[in-house]
Amino acid sequence: MFQTYKATVDNQGNLKLPDNLVLPSGSKVLITILEESPGQQINDEALLSEPSLAADWNKPDEDEAWECLQKEQ
Question: What torsion do the CA atoms of 38, 9, 14, 11 make, to the nearest 10 degrees?
Answer without folding.
Answer: 50
